[in-house]
Write a structure and sequence with these properties.
By secondary structure, this protein is mainly beta. It has helices spanning 26-29, 76-81; strands at 13-18, 32-35, 53-56, 86-91, 94-99, 105-107. The longest helix has 6 residues, at 76-81. The site of zinc ion has 8 residues, from helix 1.
Length: 110
């Protein structure tokens, strides 16, 4: 099994936000970050409340003083400290949380 956070892969962090202001839960209302491979499917629904979410495009070269280079491997401790959520792929379109806040599993619609 290939781990979702295989350190040989570049793992961009995607931010998702809720599409609808009046339909959200506390998890998706403020947006959340997910580390995904470029080849992984885009998430479409919040796994807590089931409403639509959208991927937010971030600048590709974000300078952060706390997380270091995007090419370096974040430890799970740092991921939690920096409020990221990390998932690993456990099956087709299924992800299991390894660090951070958020639902324990994610399902992609593809
Ligand atoms: Zn939600």
């Amino acid at each position: 099994m290939v781990l979702f956070y295989n350190q040989n892969d570049l793992m961009p962090i995607y931010t998702y936000e809720n599409k609808h202001d009046d339909m959200h839960c506390t998890y998706c209302s403020g947006g959340f970050d997910v580390m995904q491979k470029l080849s992984d499917p885009v998430l479409e629904l919040c796994t807590y409340c089931g409403c639509e979410i959208k991927k937010v495009i971030k600048a590709p070269h974000v300078k952060t003083g706390t997380t270091g280079s995007p090419h370096s491997t974040l430890s799970e401790k740092n991921i939690e400290k920096n409020d990221f959520t990390q998932y690993r792929k456990v099956g087709k379109g299924q992800y299991e949380k390894t660090a951070g806040k958020g639902p324990n599993t994610l399902k992609a619609n593809h």
